[in-house]
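Sample intake sheet
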Amino acid sequence: MTFIDMLQGAERQNRSLLCVGLDPDPAKFPAHLKGDASRIYDFCAAIVDATADTAIAFKPQIAYFAAHRAEDQLERLMAHMRAVAPLVPVILDAKRGDIGSTAEQYAIEAFERYGADAVTLSPFMGFDSVQPYLKYHGKGAFLLCRTSNPGGDDLQNQRLASVDGQPLLYEHVARLAQGPWNLNGQLGLVVGATYPAEIQRVRELAPTLPLLIPGVGAQGGDAVATIRAGYRNQGGATTGPVIVNSSRAILYASCDDDFAAAARREALRTRDLLEAAKG
C-alpha cells in the first residue's frame, strides 16, 4: 500500500486524526526508567502498544534517538510498530533539507534503513532537495510550510515580491506542493496548530494535500480550531486529510508506572476531541 492508502485506512479503522509523536526524553521517563537512555525502546514500545488503535499515524523524531546513540533502538521500534500496527503509517520526523547525492543518502536512511512510510523535509533549498525522496513511489514527503514556532515568521511569513501575486513564502510553498512539485501525489505539508488562520489559508491553496499539524497539546494549539481550519470531507469521505500530532501530552501523561495506561487515556481523549470537531 502507498502512504496515502495507509493513511486513509488508519483513519477509517481507528476513527482517528491523531498522530502520536514519539519524542523520547529519558529525563522525563517514569521513575523506574528515568535517565536511562538504554530503555528508550522499552518506553516507546509501551506507548505504541497502548495507543496503536487510537492513531492515524506514529511520528518518531529522529533527533531524540540520535542524541542518545539510540538509532539501533529506533530500528527496533520501527519493526515493532510494523508488527503491532501494520496498517498505521509511520512518519519519520527528520526535517532533512540537502541536495543531490546527500539527499539521496538521507532518502535511503528514511525509507530503506528505517522503513518509514513518510518523512518530513525542509524545502528551502528547492525542488532538487525534495526530488530524491519522490523516487520512492508510494512513500510520503511532508514539506515544512507554516511551522508552529514563533520564529517561523522570520522567513515563512515574508512576502515574495518577485513571484506573481507577491505571495507570502509559506503560500508559495503550498502552491508548489499542490502543483508542479507533486509529481506522483506524494507530497504533504507541515502546518502548525498555533496558527489556525494559516492552516485555513494553506488548505485553500492545497485543497487535497495531507496536512501534518504539530502543536496540539503541550504547545497550546487548539484542536477544534485546527480541525475546522484544515479538515475537509464530502459525502462522508475525507477530501482534505489532516494528521494532528500530539507528543509530550501523551508521552508524559503520567510519571508513574501507569504511564502507558495514562498515555492511552490522553490519546483517546484527544482522538475523540478531534473526531467531534469534524462535525
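Comment: The mean pLDDT is 95. Residues 18 and 244 are 5 Å apart (CA to CA).
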